[in-house]
Amino acid sequence: MVVTNKIWKSLLILFLSTLLIINYSSAATELFQEFTEDSHFIASRGSLPDTIDQEWNNTIQDCWLNITSPSYYKFDESINSIGNRNEVLTVYLGSAYEGQINDSRIDEIYSKIGSYCEENSGISDVPVVFLWDEDEEDLTYEYDPDAFENIKNDPDFVAARGIVPIFEDENEWSNWSDSVFEARQIDELDQYYTHNGGPILSYGFNRYSGYIRIGVDKTSPEKVTDSSINEIYQIVKDHFEEEGVSDIPVVFMWFEPPTEDSSGFSSIMLVMCILILTRFRK
Q: Which superkingdom (predicted)?
């Protein structure tokens, strides 16, 4: 009977370990699968870690901040922009290079990006998804002059600073958006990210939304005060004024960081396993 219990316990441990591995692999596969369904998808390189947690989120964020500091032309002239989406780097290539992009060139670009991330952020085999950027001629005039006010009704809205310009026509709006987009990188904000003890989890500018959007940690509301918001905004404002954009509109929104249970293996399952193992000890 003792031998039988030991066998069952060993089998159970093996089963649970396999289940955990499958859950981790499934989570990683689903993240990449989301991109492959995008009509702009080109290719993917690298791999996601077994555990996608806050530490990984901070690391990939640090990698992205480092990699967006140099000119994209250092990696390849076809790159329009590099983003950080769903725990992977997203590299947007200009559609004008469509006839020149092949697996060999993708490998070359990835090699340069991978080496840079490993050297500056300690990430090896960094996950990267390559996508075609949208053609400028396909983009329509989507600016909503009421968006800045309407976002204040969102339950995750925290605060807003700055003034949204009034544009006379599409060209004026497009030129302003281009100016903000090109000047969006602010190295001074790094000290305010969560991995440095600050409240910022995300920062970005959708060039057709009309304002900078900063995501702040919902799990640490004590760090999100009028004082910290004003301090962060002042850095953003000063940066853009140096680039010729005054009173840059910024919206602060609550943002929840990834949880440790992103693999799907919950604490409830863990408790059940312990109870089962305890029973087999009897």
A: Archaea
Strands (E) across the chain are located at 41-45, 79-85, 88-93, 128-132, 157-161, 200-205, 212-217, 250-255
List pLDDT tens digits, range 233-254. 999 999 999 999 999 999 999 9
Short-list 168, 172, 166, 188, CA closest to 237: 188
Question: What is the DSSP secondary structure assignment for residue 193, as one 8-state letter?
Answer: B
Strands (E), 33-118: 41-45, 79-85, 88-93
Question: What backbone torsions phi and psi does residue 103 show, to the nearest 5 degrees?
Answer: -60, -40
Triad 215, 252, 91: Cα angle to 5°: 40
Q: What is the pTM of this model?
A: 0.54
Provide the pLDDT for residue 206: 66
Which residues neighbour 86 within 8 Å (Cβ) at sequence distance 6 or greater?
A: 31, 34, 35
The CA-based angle 45-46-49, given to 5 degrees, is 145
**CATH architecture group of domain 40-136:** 2-Layer Sandwich (3.30)
